[in-house]
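Hey, can you fold this one?
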Amino acid sequence: MGVVVALGIVLAVVLGRPSGEEPPPLPVAHEKPATSASPSAADTTPADSAEADGSEQSEKDGPQRLVVSVVGKVRDPGLVQVRAGARVADAIEAAGGARGNADLMSVNLARKLVDGEQLYVGVPVPPGVDSGTPSADEDGEAGGDEPIELNSADADELESLSGVGEVTAQRILDWRTDNGGFTAVEELREIDGIGAKRFEELRDQVTVE
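Sure. Predicted structure:
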């Protein structure tokens, strides 16, 4: 009987407690849209870098320039710069052009230039002075100290001679073909365009074997 009374007292105490308050409902958090990140240096593609490097490289690898000394009867003698592959005529033009009284008959205007050479325009080369012009190479683009053999020279070799351009070189070849070759250097006088003065300039530059 006493146990029943004790249980009743416990139940009365438990049921008599006030019930706990429920927490108010919390607002639902809304997701924010993801913002696109600005491009960084890490996002740069290899193609962009290669293009930039290529532009810088092309600027560094600009066209090769030659430095040539032009003296004599030109308007602005001295050092001039011309592009690689330029001709004697280009260097004279870069020096202001030849003066009106300059004799260009002894100058091969069509010859290709080399870096560091010196051109004498309308004046003789001083004795013992090296103009810097190289000896004839395989292409015959530059005159040298060795005489050119008239019966075996090609057009390029003939054009390396003083005062001999494309037209005169072709006339020499035509004369050689028509007459079966040269037997003496003096036969150059028979070619149209080679007068006494030009022949004297050519005499020591050619030979006949």
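The beta strands are 65-72, 78-83, 118-121, 148-149, 206-207. Let me know if you want another pass with a different chain boundary.
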